[in-house]
Amino acid sequence: MKIVLAPELSAADAALYDAFVVAAPNGHYSQTRAWGRLADSGKSVQSAYFLATDENGVVGAARVQRARLGPFALPAAIVERGPIVKSPAILAQILPLLIVELHSRAVARIAVTPYFAGDQSTIAENILRLLRFRSTQKADGAHVRTLRVDLENKKSDALFSGGEREALRRKLREAEKAGVAVRRGNAADVTALQRLHDRMMLAQNKRQKTPDYFRALARFVETEDLGALFVADHQQTPIAALFTIAHGPIATFIIGATTQSALPFSKMASAMAEAIRWAHARGCKSFDLGGIPAQNDADPKRASIAQFKFDFAKTPVQLAREHTRWF
């Protein structure tokens, strides 16, 4: 078994890493090198890339993040929505290898969130417990339930059909009647998303994302074909904006915001619908709406966001929770 853990991969290893993360059943956009460059922007964080290969090819991969305090890396590591493996059972082989590599680099704690859903998430969590990991999932942490719009074998004019989406179709008609128009945004339009998102976070007393993040997002929109920005305008003013990424068979809603002004129609529905149409046109099999609260989470703000997403899909999908191990 060949093991690599490095801030930069060789050209050959980078090609193997990129192909595996896209093709693996539990691949996730946050584990890509392209997203890693964006996610680390403006943070005291450094990513390293783990790659395990044998004679048959890649067995596992992970983007590992470590926070930094000045020139020093802290002794804790995070693997967001990973490691990437072909099946939950392979976690039992890959995680000990990753732990050995991290331990040799003065890491004492690792948190992982393997991106498996449904029954496979249960299998993954059982393996994590056998490896002496314990759940450290928090209500306000990375989501562990989500909603997905099924796009497979659907015609474009039937994406929002059916009685369960009657309320959504009504909201879309109301917005269209009010003159809302959705357009594909470019790098310059990221400023509109930033402005809306900053004001939304301020209104909710939450931390705003850094200007570095939005500058990196603008570069991503300009240079990476897998991402798309959509802006909803009303009376020539942006009232909603969102960014989505297509990764393998799944497109995922990443970040979005709406104006704080009260309007007599849904401000985000039209932009979300256009993002779903874009994912369908790319050949994605599903559109992930970016998470809903856990079943026992009673937070009213998170519940309100979830209610909007239930207009698009009705059946929650359970994901593996964050698990942490000290060593």
What report would you give on this structure?
The chain has helices at residues 11-23, 33-39, 91-103, 119-130, 166-177, 190-203, 211-223, 269-281, 300-309; strands at 2-6, 45-54, 57-69, 72-79, 84-85, 109-112, 134-135, 145-150, 181-185, 227-234, 237-247, 250-258, 286-288, 316-318, 323-326. By secondary structure, the chain is α+β, with helices and mostly antiparallel strands. The chain is 33% helix and 28% strand. The two termini are 23 Å apart. The relative contact order is 0.16. It is globular and about 60 Å long. The strands form two sheets. Strands 1, 2, 3, 4, 5, 6, 7 and 15 form an eight-stranded mixed beta sheet that branches. Strands 9-10-11-12-13-8-14 form a seven-stranded mixed beta sheet.
Number of helices: 9
Q: Mean pLDDT, rounded to whole units? A: 94
How would the global form be characterised?
A: globular
Sequence of secondary-structure elements: EHHEEEEHEHEEHEHHEEEHEHEE
Strand content: 25-35%
Helical proportion, percent range: 25-40%
**What value does the Rg take, in angstroms?**
20 Å
End-to-end Cα distance = 23 Å
Structural class: alpha+beta
